[in-house]
Amino acid sequence: MLYAHIGLCEGRHEITRDDGKPLTEFIFPQIVENPMDFISNFETAYGALEPLLEVKLYITGLTPCLTATLLAAEKAGVDSLILMHYDRESGKYIPQDVSALL
User: pLDDT of 34-45, one tens digit each?
Assistant: First the structure.
């Protein structure tokens, strides 16, 4: 399976994908003007996810943006969604498959 590797919020820290390449694509820009604008956050996430079927999402920030992205993934028809959580102890990202919840 080939996944699109996408970060949630740009500029939080440098990220190396699980395939060793640097992460360069993000759903939300470095500065989210209004994290509490839930509708706008959903629309931004939906626009980024709509053409994708398989996504590895590197969690890098704001909970309202993550919530909007999870809702948008379901609405956009993403078939496979793997949340990548940073583990401070190992320095690596640990996958959480939430595909069954979509």
Answer: 999 999 999 999
Q: Tell me how crowded residue 79 is: count the other CB atoms within 10 A of its CB.
A: 12
> What is the layout of strands, in order, in the sheet containing 4-9?
26-28, 4-9, 54-58, 80-87, 92-97
**65: its two tokens:** 């943006």
As for how many domains the chain has, the answer is 1
CA distance linking residue 101 with residue 31, whole number of Å: 29
Are 68 and 57 in contact, with CB atoms under 8 Å apart? Answer: no
How far apart are the C-alpha atoms of 46 and 63, rounded to whole Å?
Answer: 16
